[in-house]
């Protein structure tokens, strides 16, 4: 079944606890952490993650768009994140970092910017619980989905299948009711959605609608046969 992770980057920051409750049916709550260095924007940090982890029963999926994740990522596990994603472009020692995140009790995830190919990192895949393919340039919400990422999603799914891994494949950026089916058909099974959820009149209903579309597309996808 597809997993839907609403992004609080699109929520009302003055009402984060309420906004988290508004998507109680979501699988994870996606928290974008930006440092104004790795990406040109500044958002949430460790104290907000700590507060959110106390305010919601939905597990937190923290996406670190920051420099030096080797130093900072473990703190997000300690703050309550159930999954921590670092960017391979920023990590000095991605295998060591993934192992440290796992050792602290969270799922380890690695993200790729749109221009970063998956093939050089094939050997790292067994060290991960999830791989995130950015379908926009990281840094800001509300961007248009990049269709040119679909072949990359397919190639990544093929590598996951080749190695027989139980690795989640997440997409983030421009995911909506008009794009989620293409992502699912290509091989994604975890979907970050920001404005498509929090811009809706009923965020919980939007989560359910996105999941239904993704599940339907997955059922007819070649990669999911026998999955």
From TrEMBL:
CDD domains: RPE. The keyword NADP does not apply. InterPro entries: Aldolase_TIM, Ribul_P_3_epim, Ribul_P_3_epim-like, RibuloseP-bd_barrel. The active site is at residues 32, 172. It catalyses: D-ribulose 5-phosphate = D-xylulose 5-phosphate. Its cofactor is Co(2+); Mn(2+); Fe(2+); a divalent metal cation. Its EC number is 5.1.3.1. Substrate binds at residues 7, 63, 139-142, 172-174, 194-195. Binds 1 divalent metal cation per subunit. It is an enzyme of class 5 (isomerase). Pathway: Carbohydrate degradation. A divalent metal cation binds at residues 30, 32, 63, 172. Keywords: Carbohydrate metabolism, Isomerase, Metal-binding. Pfam families: Ribul_P_3_epim (PF00834). Coiled coil: none annotated. NCBIfam families: PRK05581.1-4, rpe. Belongs to the ribulose-phosphate 3-epimerase family. Catalyzes the reversible epimerization of D-ribulose 5-phosphate to D-xylulose 5-phosphate. This is Ribulose-phosphate 3-epimerase. The gene is rpe.
């Amino acid at each position: 079944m597809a997993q839907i992770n609403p992004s609080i980057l699109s929520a009302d920051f003055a009402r984060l606890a309420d906004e988290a409750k508004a998507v109680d049916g979501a699988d994870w709550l996606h928290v974008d952490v930006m440092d104004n260095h790795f990406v040109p924007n500044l958002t949430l940090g460790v104290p907000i993650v700590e507060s959110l982890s106390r305010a919601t029963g939905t597990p937190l999926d923290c996406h670190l768009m920051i420099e030096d994740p080797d130093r900072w990522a473990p703190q997000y596990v300690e703050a309550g994140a159930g999954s921590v994603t670092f960017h391979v472009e920023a990590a000095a020692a991605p295998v060591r970092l993934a192992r440290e995140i796992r050792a602290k009790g969270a799922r380890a995830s690695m993200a790729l910017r749109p221009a970063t190919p998956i093939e050089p990192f094939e050997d790292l895949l067994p060290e991960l619980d999830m791989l995130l393919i950015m379908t926009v340039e990281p840094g800001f919400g509300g961007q248009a989905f990049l269709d040119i990422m679909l072949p990359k999603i397919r190639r990544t799914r093929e590598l996951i299948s080749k190695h027989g891994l139980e690795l989640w494949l997440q997409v983030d950026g421009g995911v909506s009711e008009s794009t989620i089916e293409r992502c699912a058909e290509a091989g994604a099974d975890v979907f970050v959605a920001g404005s498509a959820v929090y811009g809706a009149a009923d965020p919980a209903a939007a989560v359910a609608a996105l999941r239904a579309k993704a599940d339907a597309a997955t059922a007819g996808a070649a990669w999911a046969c026998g999955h």
